[in-house]
Amino acid sequence: MSATMRAAVLHDILDLRVEDFPKPSALSPDDVLVQVKYNGLCGTDASEYAKSSTMVPLKSPHPNSNHVGATILGHEFIGTVVEAGSNATEMLGKELRVGQAFHVVNVSAAKRVVPICAITTTPWD
């Protein structure tokens, strides 16, 4: 597996950039690393890109995380768990699919993914 990962980062309306990030060097006990096969943007992400930043905190702090600024989009994806922390080893090799409740909380020390859609299911159903 590569030493870097790619993500679609919304910097402003109509300014979506695919950027490289370092692969995490260590996982915490509850974390998993997913090798993404396919990725998409939901309707909310598309609207945020095209016309407004009502849910993505580009100009003012997100109400839950206080994050403000560029935000990684694309929480709807299909991929396979390729690494797992000590509390998540049962997830190794499992495929995660669109609509399941998982998100990346740390891409690197400088970037953070801000979940913007409701989470209603678990990834291991």
Keywords:
1 helix; 3-stranded antiparallel β-sheet; Quinone Oxidoreductase, Chain A, domain 1; 125 residues; mainly beta; disordered C terminus
Model description:
The chain has a three-stranded antiparallel beta sheet, with no helix packed on it. A three-stranded antiparallel beta sheet has the order 3-5-6, with no helix packed on it. The model is unreliable at 104-125 (pLDDT under 50). The chain has 125 residues and is mostly beta strands. A hairpin with a 2-residue loop joins strand 1 and strand 2. It is 6% helix and 32% strand. The chain is globular, with a radius of gyration of 14 Å. It has a single domain, classed as Alpha-Beta Complex (Quinone Oxidoreductase, Chain A, domain 1). The two termini are 27 Å apart. It has one helix and six strands; from the N terminus they run E-E-E-H-E-E-E.
Could you give a short description of this structure?
The protein is mainly beta and 125 residues long.
